[in-house]
Design goal:
The chain has 380 residues and is α+β, with helices and mostly antiparallel strands. 57% of the residues lie in helices and 13% in strands. It has helices spanning 2-33, 38-43, 153-161, 164-195, 201-211, 216-234, 241-264, 269-277, 282-293, 295-310, 314-319, 329-339, 344-374, and strands at residues 53-60, 67-70, 73-79, 88-93, 102-103, 107-109, 115-118, 123-128, 139-146. α7 (241-264) packs antiparallel against α10 and α12 (329-339) packs antiparallel against α13 (344-374). The longest helix is centred in the first third of the chain and has 32 residues, at 2-33.
Length: 380
């Protein structure tokens, strides 16, 4: 029997470890990819980020303005790599059909009898007996070994050029009130359902539980119509931050109330009775006894509600406009997916930015999370 228990325990630990790896590996890959050069990201996976990779790139030489005359030759000299350190040319070509035609250091003779030579460090020399007349230079295909490199350019472009920084701030403005408002309302509501006796309490509780099965999508358009009517009556736009705060509050009331009620009803009845004997009102009991004891439950529900609001797309699209001052992070990422779908460096960086706050919230409150989830599973 002991051997059987040990085997099952080992299997459970291995299963848990596999779940952790399955969750962490993509997150870590997204983090690494957000710092990688866009050219490397397009041709290799994140697991090759610490190894030297071979890349095929296209460069263009300088035009006629870069030429100098040396004896009987007109020469254009420069470096393809500019500030890129560590790159080494392996071979090169002057046509797209034969990009690896010439070994580094060899000379390529073009149709106009001019000659191009490319060196290992990226230097090139293009010389001709005739003066260069074209403003645009010559295309050269280079195969080079590129060492590991990381950059913050992806974050600069995403935050300041693509508008994701403003969308990030908009999402915080949406998520915090949309989490704190229902949590505040439901804490009082759940206490009343758990410890106050009044007519219709059981019917009200049953209605809350029944509303959990109603799909959110069914109520979006009716609620937006009501908001529009109220907005027209009071001269306030329905598609605004207060509007989406109320929408998320309404959608989160049932689940938040049910979870809190499930925890609060498990608190010892003797403690409540003792407080009442000492003359405490319901408000005193709630603020001085229930709240301190319910911190794990509040923390876990805060995490769940915050993550739901932060990752929401549907409610944000319905109750907010798409102009920069209101668009939320998930809607902005959806927009980038359509307009910049081929730019993996933009998408991976944007996706990781959207994960930073939920990860921070979760790891900050994780010690309360499990305690809050299991609280109420047993009585007393």
């Amino acid at each position: 029997m002991k051997i059987k228990f040990n085997i099952s325990s080992i299997l459970a630990q291995l299963l848990l470890l596999s779940f952790v790896i399955v969750w962490i590996a993509p997150t870590f890959g997204l983090f690494i990819s957000s710092f990688r050069d866009k050219d490397k990201l397009a041709i290799s996976g994140w697991w090759t980020s610490l190894t030297t990779v071979q890349v095929n790139e296209i460069y263009r030489t300088k035009g006629k303005e870069g030429q100098v005359q040396e004896g009987n030759y007109f020469i254009i000299r420069d470096n393809f790599f500019n500030d890129a350190k560590g790159k080494k040319v392996i071979n090169f070509g002057v046509t797209s059909k034969k990009i690896n035609e010439f070994i580094v250091g060899n000379t390529a003779i073009l149709k106009d009898k001019s000659e191009i030579k490319v060196f290992e460090n990226g230097d090139y020399e293009w010389k001709s007996k005739k003066e260069f007349t074209k403003k645009k230079g010559r295309r050269v295909f280079v195969t080079a070994s590129s060492p590991p490199s990381f950059t913050f350019e992806n974050y600069k472009e995403v935050l300041f050029k693509e508008g994701l920084g403003q969308a990030f701030l908009n999402t915080i403005v949406v998520a915090l009130p949309s989490t704190l408002i229902p949590l505040t309302i439901c804490s009082f509501f759940a206490y009343a359902l758990a410890w106050m006796k009044f007519f219709g309490r059981d019917i009200l509780l049953a209605s809350i539980i029944a509303s959990l099965v109603v799909p959110l999508q069914m109520s979006l358009i009716p609620i937006l119509t009501i908001y529009n009517d109220f907005g027209a009556l009071f001269g306030v736009a329905a598609k605004s931050f207060p509007g989406i705060w109320m929408a998320h509050t309404g959608f989160g009331l049932a689940s938040t109330t049910f979870l809190l009620w499930n925890f609060l009803k498990s608190l010892p009845n003797e403690m409540m009775e003792a407080a009442k004997v000492d003359g405490a009102t319901h408000y005193d009991v709630f603020t001085k006894i229930v709240l301190p004891l319910s911190i794990p439950a509040f923390a876990s529900i805060f995490i769940l509600q915050f993550l739901w609001v932060w990752n929401d797309l549907l409610v944000g699209l319905v109750f907010l406009d798409k102009h920069p001052s209101e668009i939320i992070l998930t809607a902005k990422l959806k927009e980038l997916l359509g307009s910049r779908g081929e730019n993996w460096e933009i998408l991976t960086t944007g996706a990781f930015i959207s994960m930073t706050v939920p990860l921070f919230i979760f790891f900050s409150l994780q010690r309360y999370f499990i305690r809050g989830l299991v609280a109420g599973s047993v009585k007393g």
